[in-house]
Amino acid sequence: MAERADDRAGRADVSRSAAASVYERIRTMILASEIAPGEKLNIDQLARQLGVSQTPVREAVQRLEGDQLVVARRPRGYATTQLLDEAGLRHMFEVRLLLEPWSARAAAVDRAANPGAAMLREIDRFAAEMHGDPRHLMSAHDTRFHELILRAVGNDFLANAFRQMHPHLHLFRLYPADIDGAHTIAEHERIARAIAAADPDEAEQAMRAHLLAAMERFSAGVDGGAPSLAGVRPGAVRPRTADVG
Known about the structure:
Layout: H1 5-31, E1 40-41, H2 43-50, H3 54-66, E2 70-72, E3 78-80, H4 86-109, H5 116-128, H6 134-153, H7 156-165, H8 167-171, H9 182-196, H10 200-219, H11 234-237
Antiparallel strand pairs: 1-3, 2-3
């Protein structure tokens, strides 16, 4: 009997779901340093550990390479990428300090697309689910929170530039001092309430303060815990404030 189209579609959905699950599990292992930075990935060992075939593991590794959490090794194989060093951390935050305070200001100005209420709901959801590995949860929350702002601004170039950095995946491999998320929640609430109140000045200031505080926290995860503010160029820390038209 010929195979029914809906049976084939059902199996394809199961296959995609299994591949996505394997990707999430391996990504969590990397974020939690269960797979150490710079460690070679053993596809067969991962497949046996996760109880799956090698195919979804290979697909997951290819996705993780796109996330810049995995890098191809010559002549063959893959390894996890190294953690950000002090210069890499500083450079990432220099770019974020140029993009995100302006984005918060722009989101607060546009009342029609104002994401403040959705941001507050995201904070409540994150606070309610804080269990398990906090780095995985904080990375997912931070991604959703900041992308709510970027989507509200509606600038695809800005959103793509932000996503290409994969900032949350890289940062949460470090060991932030705010491991329970208390400081992050408080800072996110300040940003969200300013945007919800359509207060662009406060939204911009709150975002800048959040990024500077986060940079200090994440610097504790860099070798030696060197202060990260010393090398940040002044123009990146406090760009000229401009009204959003």
